[in-house]
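batch job 7 of whatever, protein = Sodium-dependent transporter
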Amino acid sequence: MGILAVITSFIGLSYYAVLGGWVIRYIFVSVTGLPKSSEAFFTSFTGNTGSQIIYYLVFMVITVAIVVMGIQKGIEKSCKIMMPLLIVCLIVIVIRSCTLPGAGEGIKFFLKPDFSKLTPGAFLSALGQVFFSLSLGTGATITYGAYLGKNQNIPKSAVSIAFFDTMVAMIAGFAILPAVFAFGFSPTSGPSLMFQTLPAVFDEMTGGKIFGVVFFVLVLFAAVSTSIAFLEVVVSFAVNTFKVGRAKASVISAVLITCLGIPCALSFGIWSDIKIAGKTFFDLGDYLVSNVSLPIGGILACIFIGWVWKSKNAEKEVTNEGKISFKLVSVWSVLIKFVLPVVIFIIFVTSNPWIMDLFQ
């Protein structure tokens, strides 16, 4: 489970840094003036080999610098200020996005359920997104867990994290999808939606240039908080396994991850036609992490906690020997041991035809 978590974080950062590079590019373009045709600018930018590599490297350097210097105090203190500011920015964008002409169709698309889409593949995609968003199966929760004090209320934190993660995702949906329909973009464009729709929204706002700069700076901080979690997992493994210094482990890990990630950065340009199993390097990395390694990591974690470490020992750790209340511990124990491994496995198998083919 530990080795898989390290591999997951390694691959995850390799393609996630591509998005981080995009955010940095949009900070600069927001300062100089948002493009009139955001879709054309995005296509031109992502197709430019030099720009893709440069901004990818800049994002990786920022990530490495933070991990080398230490992350606990700086990130924790900064999050208390910058994350609430990001939510405030998102709410302002929601108000403007939802009042655009034609935004109603986007709201309807977002909220009206289409039960024909509830396929096993959709459940796996949702499962992968939940795992990715909460850093489950990447080793980040284990690594960061080492920083927690004994008096930390883990059940309360877990509920709060899941709640606010979902809330921010809903806010982001209201910020982006109404604008997607208002400006005629495709709602199936994936990660690029934010970079195509929001500049168009800022262009329709008073003081949109300033607001765009602030927003993308805050998004960069959010992106870096995720990237350092990925890198910290790999670095911690290297430091403890190979007994090397933190700085050396950080630099070497980052170089290796970058070598794997450059093809992902070029997947939107000169290497867009190169595909493995019908997927570009970027899409393949995302698929391997979200649809394969994270669900498998989740199953292994359930098995380890429930059957190897034993849920009673986990309960003692979570409650600090009974000092912290965990009223649903009996339900949690049953879920960990019996329900979740089976549910995740069923979703995983039924959503991946190649697994079914192995048994035929």
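notes: The chain has one domain: 2-358.
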